[in-house]
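Long-time lurker. I teach an intro course on protein structure, and each term I like to show students one example going from raw sequence to a predicted 3D structure in token notation. This year I'd like something fresh instead of my usual example. Would anyone be willing to generate the tokens for the chain below so I can use it in lecture? Attribution to the forum is fine with me.
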Amino acid sequence: MSTKFRLPTEIPIEEYPKPQIFIDEAIRLVQEAANRGIILRVMGGLGIYLQCIDYKDFFEKVKRLGERVFTDIDLATLSKYSAVLLNFFTEMGYHYDPRILYLHPSRLIFFGGKVPMVDVFLDKLEMCHTLDLRNRLEIDKLTLSPSDLLLEKLQIVKINEKDVKDVISLLRCRDVGDSDNLINAKYIASLLAKDWGFYYTVTSNLIKIKDQFIPSYDFLTEDEKRIILERINKLLTTIEETPKTTQWKLRAKIGTKKKWYREVEEIL
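-- Reply from a regular --
Happy to contribute to a lecture. Here you go:
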């Protein structure tokens, strides 16, 4: 890859890394970091794919991004590793721009290696809503937990079809339950019970996926639709039945008359 940063769409398809390169590289980075005592966990669509590796035929059937199945590798880590990660990624064959690091101290952006970009989030995912990951990174040895991967997608206010397809892929391969090796409904509900804005975005997206997207997807079998819908309904029921905080109730009275989410700016 070039040492000059290029957006994935700027790379000719004949040069673009195959999906397996993203998969192998994500695993390599996590394992090499672990050998150095650094915690890295895969996030995003690639994280969902790795969680759903036993359902890879389903994931491929969904065709979330066409030929460019993955655009980057998203990773989560702790801010205490930020300094050593600069040297680590340099050793792994990547480059970074100090100006970008200065402007966005909560993220580390690397490029020019085996994949177009590696985006490393420190402690939290701060997008439309904030997802605190500091006590969640050791649940799985390779990726974020299924619950955090799901919340990462459902916190997007202007959710697009790629993210919707990631959600249904995760809901197909992981049941909803009350443990962290599943989509942990109790954990999700407890977070949303404290933050009305986060609750509103997540539940609105689940309802939209249930009512608009799934019925229109002809590539899903009736059995697949049934399984995914049952899991969405199970999750929504737990969310609604979980007692809400006083702060949540006060914010709920204001509703959408006041902006309930953070605008997300493009970093590059």
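Some talking points for your students: Residues 19 and 69 are 6 Å apart (CA to CA). Residues 196-216 form the longest helix (21 residues).
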